[in-house]
Design a protein that fits this description.
- With 153 residues, the chain is mainly alpha-helical.
- The protein has one domain (23-148).
- It is built from 7 helices and no strands.
- α2 packs across α7 (130-148).
- The protein is globular, with a radius of gyration of 19 Å.
Length: 153
């Protein structure tokens, strides 16, 4: 019985150590990515069907807001409150950047590229040519500029 309990304790210790060692996006990385996505967003035009400075499709807003705010909000509510929009985008960007940091073995530039591609297309890969490649390149450039800024914001 002691051996079984010891094995369980060791197993739990090893699995919690593995979780603790997974890369996590820092607040600075998340802020830089959020700003890069905002600055790279196509210019807003009336009735374009996209919402906030990040040009978010309305169908995803209730799901994202429920995940991040623990309540659903409408596209119009997101549009009307820039702080709420930033909070939701930051939450989703953190989730996706964390996922990409894990899948790229903590390669920050690859994680940023994957997250930017996902933001535009819903897929982490495939943004190698045309408009999507240009968009990802722009996001990476803006991200690197944001990361280079002093942290005194």
């Amino acid at each position: 019985m002691r051996a079984l309990i010891g094995a369980i304790i060791i197993s739990l210790g090893i699995s919690s150590l593995a979780v603790a060692q997974q890369p996590k996006a820092s607040d600075v990385q998340v802020t830089a990515m959020v700003e890069a996505l905002r600055k790279a967003a196509p210019p807003q035009s009336p009735n374009d069907g996209l919402y906030s400075d990040w040009q978010i499709k309305p169908g995803i807003i209730p799901s994202w807001s429920k995940q991040c705010l623990q309540r659903e909000i409408t596209a119009q509510q997101l549009e009307a409150n820039p702080a709420t929009a930033r909070a939701v985008v930051s939450c989703i960007v953190r989730r996706e950047l964390n996922s990409q940091l894990v899948s790229t073995n903590n390669n920050e530039q690859s994680a940023v590229r994957g997250t930017a591609c996902w933001w535009m297309t819903g897929d982490y890969k495939g943004c190698r040519s045309g408009f999507t490649a240009d968009y990802v390149k722009r996001v990476v450039e803006l991200y690197n500029k944001e990361r280079a800024r002093p942290a005194t914001r």
